[in-house]
Design goal:
Blueprint: H1 12-38, H2 71-86, H3 91-104, H4 118-126, H5 138-141, H6 144-149, H7 154-165, H8 172-189, H9 213-225, H10 231-239, H11 245-260, H12 267-272, H13 276-297
Helix pairs in contact: 1-2, 1-10, 1-11, 1-13, 2-3, 2-13, 7-8, 8-11, 9-10, 9-11, 10-11
């Protein structure tokens, strides 16, 4: 960041700390988008039914170009824009933005809401999550911008998780899973090393009767991050699960990006990522707001 970016003045040590923080902010959002893009060939496919993903090749059910993303990234970016403009979590504004995305493709790459799930579609039409449709994992996937906004205040983050979630989800189990993942993300953004010692079970085990899409995604995130040395290793492990590979890639991608920083993401893949300048601009805008608020408190 440059001195004319509207930020406080920092000494050399502080600038180095800001650079590390910027790497984690950018890593979280770029990692989310790239994780979803990387998953394209495996989406909705059974494990073992597709060639193992080792590169960014596109394809999949929507025949995406390499580096393209769909609903998971679109909703996360729309949430980030809402948080910036509303100065925090405003569920009505989020609902309005998501409805424009659903109706007009606003915030998408192609002018339509590719990948929108049945639960999200129903919630946006009705204005609330339906009692007749189980929650998806969408609240888990899009949480990163809210975590970044609340970098300095985890308690404030925890208070805003439920209103953010309830735009499209309703189940208490979803909130429990979201709270756990958001806490993991917040620790990573703060520079805390990832600790998966609390893994409740292996993601390879047979799903339990009470398992939700969100809890399944979180289990796969933990398993994918276990002993991972970099972003690439973790996210490739996640997307090669198949099934909801886009969810697994986007969720693991944002956590791995926060843990390892943007430098750990392959540069060649980042160069192919659709909308990269816009995503970087959003990450930097969130960081600038955090730093200004921190400076005002000193």
């Amino acid at each position: 960041m440059t001195p004319d970016a509207g930020l406080p003045d920092f000494d050399a040590d502080a600038l180095a700390a800001v650079a590390r923080l910027r790497s984690r902010f950018r890593g979280a959002l770029l990692g989310l988008a790239l994780g979803e893009a990387l998953a394209a060939p495996a989406q909705l496919s059974k494990p073992g039914s597709f060639a193992p993903i080792r590169d960014l090749i596109g394809g999949g059910p929507f025949d995406l170009a390499p580096g393209s993303w769909t609903d998971d990234t679109a909703m996360a970016l729309l949430l980030g824009q809402s948080v910036l403009e509303c100065r925090g979590c405003d569920p009505l504004d989020q609902l309005s933005r998501f409805r424009r995305w659903q109706r007009d493709g606003e915030g998408s790459l192609c002018g339509e809401c590719l990948g929108i799930t049945a639960s999200v579609s129903r919630a946006l039409v009705d204005g609330e999550a339906s009692d007749n449709v189980r929650d998806g994992a969408d609240a888990l996937v899009r949480v990163a911008p809210l975590v970044l906004w609340h970098y300095a205040d985890e308690q404030a983050l925890m208070k805003e998780l439920e209103p953010m979630m309830r735009v499209t989800c309703r189940e208490s189990s979803t909130l429990d899973t979201l709270t756990e993942f958001a806490s993991m993300m917040h620790g990573a953004i703060r520079g805390k090393p990832f600790n998966d010692s609390d893994r409740s079970r292996s993601a390879d085990m047979t799903p339990s009767r009470n398992e939700t899409e969100a809890s399944r995604a979180l289990a796969i995130v933990k398993e994918s991050m276990h002993e991972a040395k970099n972003w690439k290793d973790a996210v490739l492990r996640a997307v090669n699960r198949g099934g909801d590979a886009d969810v697994y890639g986007a969720t693991t991608g944002q956590l791995a990006g926060a843990v390892f920083g943007v430098e750990s993401i392959p540069a060649g893949w980042l160069a192919m990522l659709a909308g990269r300048p816009m995503i970087e601009e959003l990450a930097d805008a969130l960081l600038a707001e955090v730093l200004v608020r921190l400076d005002a408190e000193i």
